[in-house]
């Protein structure tokens, strides 16, 4: 164990932030494992992991600042990068999943025309009633 | 209890949590029913690896791990964007 000897005012925040960051990361990945559908599962990593990363990054900043007796804040680079990219990644994955789901659903009913992409959220129900009405007639 | 033992305990706890999280991600990567589940699990695995590098940097009292964490974050973002584009379009570069 080669952890430096820190004063109390630095060691206690670092320890608390490390424990908190580890717990938040664990909760996020547990959500990824346990939740039912993909649209529920994406919440765990997208929100909880960036929060846990923030806690561990702040812990690392406080630790190195106190251990080296100078200002060490280059972890802010990773923090800014994670804050910028986590929502982008979540949005791209969600759009890809929605696109694939709706395309698969449209392929399962080949009699209907491929719906336009702009109104994908609302049109499935009325298409289903259209299909039922057409079958009854 | 000195500050060194307090920090050591916190570091071991954080390491255990992050490694357990990586195990959960690997399980979801193995059993994920759809392709987007596997991509999401891979992205979370990248993030957990970055956190593991940061905690190991505190453990070994070394600033070298910071560069590794930065590289892992950059590569994870690029690979996840490429995989999401592939899921959406069927090809990465059009």
How are the secondary structure elements laid out?
The complex is a heterodimer of chains A (137) and B (94).
Chain A (H helix, E strand, L loop, with lengths): L7 H27 L3 H4 L1 H26 L6 H34 L11 H17 L1
Helix pairs in contact in A: 1-3, 3-4
Chain B lengths: L2 H29 L3 H25 L4 H26 L5
List keywords for this structure.
heterodimer; A: 137 residues; mainly alpha; 5 helices; B: 94 residues; elongated
Describe the overall structure.
The complex is a heterodimer of chains A (137) and B (94). With 137 residues, chain A is an all-alpha fold. Chain A has one domain. Chain A is 79% helix and 0% strand. Chain A has helices spanning 8-34, 38-41, 43-68, 75-108, 120-136. In chain A, α1 packs antiparallel against α3 (43-68) and α3 (43-68) packs antiparallel against α4. Residues 131-137 of chain A have low confidence and may be disordered. Chain B is mainly α and 94 residues long. Chain B has one domain (3-89). Chain B is built from three helices and no strands. Chain B is elongated and about 60 Å long. At the A-B interface, α1, α3 and α4 of A face α1, α2 and α3 of B.
Instruction: Give the C-alpha Rg of chain A.
Output: 24 Å
Total count of domains of chain A: 1
Q: Could you tell me how far the N terminus lies from the C terminus of chain B, measured between alpha carbons in angstroms?
A: 60 Å
Largest interface chains and counts: A-B, 57 and 55 residues
Secondary-structure class of chain A:
mainly alpha
Arithmetic mean of pLDDT of chain B = 90
Helix content of chain B: over 70%
The rough form of chain B would be described as elongated
Shape label of chain A: elongated
| Helical amount of chain A | over 70%
Mean pLDDT of chain A: 81
Q: What's the domain count of chain B? A: 1
The largest sheet of chain B is: none
Helix and strand run of chain A: HHHHH
Low-pLDDT segments, ≥5 res of chain A: 131-137
Q: How many H/I helices of chain B?
A: 3
Chain oligomer state: heterodimer
Percent of residues in β-strands of chain B: under 5%
